[in-house]
Design brief:
CATH class: Mainly Alpha
Number of helices: 5
Number of domains: 1
Distance between the termini: 5 Å
CATH topology: 434 Repressor (Amino-terminal Domain)
Mean pLDDT: 96
Strand content: under 5%
Largest sheet: none
Length: 68
């Protein structure tokens, strides 16, 4: 489960559905990835990081994609 990712998604006012849309996947697929059931691709990671860095330019991948 990616707890930090969930927090950063909420800070950026993204629902799971809108995050899925950003990644061109369904809400269900996004949910599965956020729960750690399936892996994010590097392309998906990069898209999310680009969005998050709009508000937090110094944010790193390691801070966001920590599994708990």
């Amino acid at each position: 489960m990616y707890i930090a990712l969930k927090g950063y998604r909420k800070i950026n006012l993204l629902s799971q559905a809108s995050a899925g849309k950003l990644l061109n996947i369904t809400r269900e697929s996004y949910c599965s990835k956020e729960l750690g059931k399936t892996e994010f691709t590097m392309s998906e990671v990069n898209k999310l990081m680009k969005k998050f860095k709009e508000k937090m330019p110094t944010l790193t991948i390691e801070e966001v994609f920590i599994r708990k």
